[in-house]
């Protein structure tokens, strides 16, 4: 009996050894990593930014979690010199669809667009300070806004739909600047003023024309549209000959194209059909400003906002141009854009004035 017992034990040991030692590496089935991001459409917006799990590790470092993809537009909306970090996240097996070079991509339900605003060289200690993170989330019924204000310790950001102001003093290219930075109200309609079409919320910068260039990812440099298609965030049927904007401060590009790119990202979302300034005749979209009339060249102003202003753009004369007047104004009733800035974007004004000065034509 004892001999049979040991024989059975021996056979079981041999069988166990065969099962667990004779397999090949090809039998190993890897476990696909899953994104930690949580966007429950029934519960968003969450009370805290950390609840979404968009960022890996210390949140202020803005290291994106798995499947959270950074992106950049060619030219950026000016917001009192704030720096911005932008990210997109989509649910598994969902992707955006191309709808035209200058039209916002059509995003699937569940998409989250994340934009963090921050300053470097904050005085007196030359530190970095994150001010806010704005999120747009695509729900079944449409897009919603969620604005999060960062605490002084830079450890968390909390939902604040009401808007507020905060003083910022920093060095910009060695020059001391100050602004009473406006964190917009999502509940009071400030976000909707710019982000709307037919009074419905929409994203405004995520157009193929603005993304059709390479940026650096953790895996290396790649065209953003190609990267989006590679990771499954964009249907791969988009054209490869997209007419694209350029970086407005890239002096290797033609001056007019730089001006058109800057005006597109800063002004076109309001100056288009069914948007906030659709009643005005200018049409500032990049695809429309090959016609200089749409840029306001030789266009007689409807509103009298200052003396001696003969045209929206008076060729050769920035001082007689309403465009120059508005982009140098800090008065809330006359400045352009209406929201998002309280100080003058001096470098852009210099570029636009140079362009106006080079226009060699007579107005009727």
Topology:
Elements: H1 2-21, E1 69-71, E2 83-89, E3 112-122, E4 127-139, E5 142-150, E6 157-159, E7 164-172, E8 175-183, H2 190-194, E9 196-197, E10 200-201, H3 208-211, E11 214-217, E12 220-223, H4 224-231, H5 255-267, H6 322-328, H7 346-358
Antiparallel strand pairs: 1-2, 2-3, 3-4, 4-5, 5-6, 7-8, 9-10, 11-12
Fold and architecture overview:
- The protein starts with a helix and ends in a 6-residue tail after the last helix.
- The protein has helices at 2-21, 190-194, 208-211, 224-231, 255-267, 322-328, 346-358, and strands at residues 69-71, 83-89, 112-122, 127-139, 142-150, 157-159, 164-172, 175-183, 196-197, 200-201, 214-217, 220-223.
- It has two domains: 32-244, no CATH class; 246-364, no CATH class.
- The strands form four sheets. It has a six-stranded antiparallel sheet with strand order 1-2-3-4-5-6, with no helix packed on it. It has a two-stranded antiparallel sheet with strand order 7-8. A two-stranded antiparallel sheet has the order 9-10.
- With 364 residues, it is of the alpha+beta class.
- Keywords: Signal.
- This is Putative repeat protein (TIGR03806 family).
- Residues 1-24 form the signal peptide.
Please summarize what this structure is.
The protein has 364 residues and is α+β, with helices and mostly antiparallel strands.
């Amino acid at each position: 009996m004892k001999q049979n017992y040991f024989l059975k034990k021996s056979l079981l040991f041999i069988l166990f050894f065969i099962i667990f030692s004779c397999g090949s590496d090809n039998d190993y089935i890897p476990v696909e990593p899953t994104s930690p991001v949580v966007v429950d459409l029934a519960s968003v917006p969450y009370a805290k930014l950390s609840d979404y799990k968009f960022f890996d590790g210390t949140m202020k470092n803005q290291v994106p979690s798995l499947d959270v993809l950074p992106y950049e537009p060619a030219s950026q909306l000016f917001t009192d010199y704030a720096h911005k970090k932008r990210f997109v996240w989509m649910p598994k097996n969902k992707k955006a669809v191309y709808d035209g070079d200058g039209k916002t991509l059509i995003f699937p339900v569940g998409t989250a667009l994340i934009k963090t605003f921050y300053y470097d060289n904050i005085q007196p200690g030359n530190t970095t300070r994150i001010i806010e993170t704005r999120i747009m989330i695509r729900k079944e019924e449409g897009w919603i806004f969620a604005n999060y204000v960062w605490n002084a310790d830079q450890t968390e950001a909390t939902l604040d739909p009401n808007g507020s102001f905060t003083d910022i003093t920093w060095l910009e290219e060695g020059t001391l600047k100050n602004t009473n930075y406006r964190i917009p109200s999502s509940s009071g309609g400030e976000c909707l003023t710019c982000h709307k079409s037919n009074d419905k919320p929409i994203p405004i910068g995520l157009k193929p024309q603005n993304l059709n260039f390479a940026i650096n990812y953790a895996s290396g440099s790649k065209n953003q549209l190609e990267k989006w298609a590679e990771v499954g965030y964009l249907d791969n049927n988009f054209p490869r000959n997209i007419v694209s904007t350029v970086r407005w401060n890239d002096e290797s590009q033609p001056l007019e194209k730089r001006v058109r790119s800057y005006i597109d990202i800063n002004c076109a979302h309001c100056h288009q059909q069914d948007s906030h300034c659709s009643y005005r005749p200018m049409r500032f979209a990049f695809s429309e400003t090959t016609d200089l009339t749409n840029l306001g060249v030789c266009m007689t102003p409807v509103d009298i906002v200052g003396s001696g202003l003969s045209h929206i753009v008076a060729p050769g004369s920035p001082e007689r141009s309403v465009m120059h007047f508005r982009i140098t104004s800090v008065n809330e009733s006359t400045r352009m854009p209406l929201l998002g800035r309280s100080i003058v974007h001096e470098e852009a004004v210099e570029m636009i004035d140079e362009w106006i000065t080079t226009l060699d034509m007579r107005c009727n």
